[in-house]
Amino acid sequence: MLRVLWLTALAAGIAAAQETPSKAALPPVEGVAFEDVPADNGAAIQATWKKMPNDAEVTYRIMVATSENGPWFLAAETPGTENFSQDDGYPFWMGPPKNRELHYLAVDGYQAGEERVTLMPPEDPKTKTRKPTPDYWFKLVAESPAGSWESPATKLKPEWNLFNWARLNVFLYMLAFAGIILAFIQIARGRQLFIRRIAGLDAVDEAVGRATEMGKPIFYLTGRNGITDVSTVAATLILGEIAKKVATYDTTIKVPHTDPIVMAVCQEITRESYIAAGRPDSFKPDSNFFVTDDQFGYTAAVDGMMVREKPAACFYMGYYYAESLLLAETGASTGAIQVAGTDADHQLPFFVTACDYTLIGEELYAAGAYLSKEPVLVGTLRGQDIGKAVILAALLVLTAVATIGQWVTVGGKKPYKWSEIWVFDFLKGS
Amino acid sequence: MVFLKRQLPLLICFVIGTVTALQYYVPTNFSAEMSEGLSNWYIIVSMFAALLGFVSVGMVHTKKIQRQEPGWAYSTLVILGFLAMVIVGFVSGGKETTPDGRPSSYGWLYNCTLVPLQATMFAILGFYVASAAFRSFRAKSFDAGVLLATAVIVLLGNVPFTNQVWAGWLGIHDVAGVKIEMTDIVSWLIGTPNAAARRGVTFGVALGAIATSLKIIFGIERAYLGGGD
Which residue does chain B place closest to A319, by CA atoms? Predict the structure, then answer.
């Protein structure tokens, strides 16, 4: 009996010796932390840990489980030479300190066999709802040929956040710019503000007068985009002012459209302009008409109308694509006086070439205020100018600082290196 | 009536405009779903508005045909083309190919008439670019002269033969120790002065767009409502 017990103990001892890891334990990884990702929708967590001396040989793995005792699944892994906090994608005012001394990994799911499981439960396509996000346990495992180490399990649940702090700078710009605009609107109510002359808009009277003398129609185009585009909205506002002049002179205006919603809006605007000009009876509902939403179909139709009707003036306002030159060259060939206004910078050269006057970029947005001369609207123009002045000043200062930083060296480093200027980082944002 | 025609649209505009602007700063799923929902609503409204478009096309061209206005024959073609496309589309079940993989009547109409017509219009652009360039490159002023000189360099820089002349025959490889090819000059012109001008325009456009949006959201600009009081 004793012999059996002895043999059993010996066998157990051999087995235990075989199960003991042959690798030595790695020194503990320092600064291991698991946190909720800030400013997200509750889909991910982030792990940080300090760089170790033997990182070149180590592979780090983030393991995840839905209970403290496992089973554990692989969520992410990285070699010790990659994934540092300086590349975490956050602006400098968020996330861990930006350097190459701290490892950083974000985790939004894990691999369970063949299946990829997200930390945030997926939406049920039928009920359009999600189950509540459960608690997870995370641990960091470091492995190298010399041994391995793993951190204690940390319980964590990804949480959603109400504000995306990565966009703080954009939010502050928005508030500042809105404040400037509203302040100048208030100032404009009290006193008259100066606006520089815009030749293209001064030519509107000339164009309408010419059309009246010649007895020819005016063509007004609102661009290719829908009403959700701000340049289209600007084009409809300019139409209102031009339609008032057209109504006053009792001239014909034709507004071919490529978007039915824009057509409906422009019909109302034109009607309102005729009423404001005191000539509601002269308004023709079919002055605004839909052609087609096809780009070149629309171009062919409008070109055809131009060639047949020989308009006295053509206005091209709004956003344009490849049709810009096809329209403007045809208009030029008919001898019409042409005024274009677009924020499509690729099409500007074509309009500048083929039209008599071109409103470049922001002038399109200024046109409504310029033509109406309403003090409140004029105030917004001054606000825009202040905004531009601020951007210009920032560009000049930062360009000077960055340029000087190419030569100045303090303590062996270039303190004003372009990428290290925090003001620039703040301005450019995330 | 004033409330329905003026105040209610302004209120809707203010609420939707503010919520949509703030949505950019809120990272929740609800925020993203709301934004998607609003986009879907726009698509639905657009589909209904498409009916307005069809009605408009029908009325404009029917009137032209009835009154036999100049060019009324083109209006007949528009109506016939529209009807042909709709009828053939219904007959083909709206599909461009038949079950055995051949083009359906609808597919044939689309690919053999509409697509070539679109391509033709686009191709005309080449001729228009040439005629527009001819007009604008007449060096009548200093500015036009600069434009002409720049355009000539960019045009020539994109031709392989010019590069051969520059590097092979003239042997211009380096200036003050820096290797300069013809393409480097073109790249500099496009990437530096041209890009700077475009970025200036972009800044202005962005500020103008924000200002216009603010005017509309806060009800300062109301002309787009039309309709009177």
Answer: B205
User: Does A364 lie in the same domain as A275?
Assistant: yes
Domain, as residue range, for A171: 166-179+379-428
- How much is the pLDDT for A219? 97
pLDDT bin (cut points 50, 70, 90) of residue A417 is low
Q: Which of residues 89-128 of A touch B (CB under 8 A)?
A: none
On whether residue A8 sits in a domain, the answer given is no
The beta strand positions in A11-164, using DSSP E, are: 24-25, 33-36, 45-50, 59-65, 73-79, 102-107, 109-112, 115-118, 136-144, 147-150, 154-156
What is the reported pLDDT for B164? 77
Chain A residue closest to B57 (CA)? A290
Residue A14 maps to a domain: no
pLDDT at A402 over 80: no
* CATH classification at residue A354: 3.40.50
Q: How many CA atoms lie within 13 A of B114 on its CB side?
A: 17
What confidence tier does A13 reach under pLDDT thresholds 50, 70, 90? very low
Question: Which amino acid appears at position B204 of this protein?
Answer: G
A368 shares its domain with A269: yes
Find residues 184-223 of chain A whose CB sits inside 8 Å of chain B.
185
Test the B interface: residue of A272, A274, A302, A386 with most B CBs within 10 Å: A272
CATH number, domain of A40, equals 2.60.40.10
Q: A299 lies in a domain? A: yes
How far are the Cα atoms of A331, A351, B71 from residue A237, in angstroms, in the given order? 23, 20, 31
Question: A-chain residues within 8 Å CB-CB of B77?
Answer: none
Q: Shortest CB distance from B128 goes to which of A295, A326, A387?
A: A326
- On average, the pLDDT of chain A sits at 85
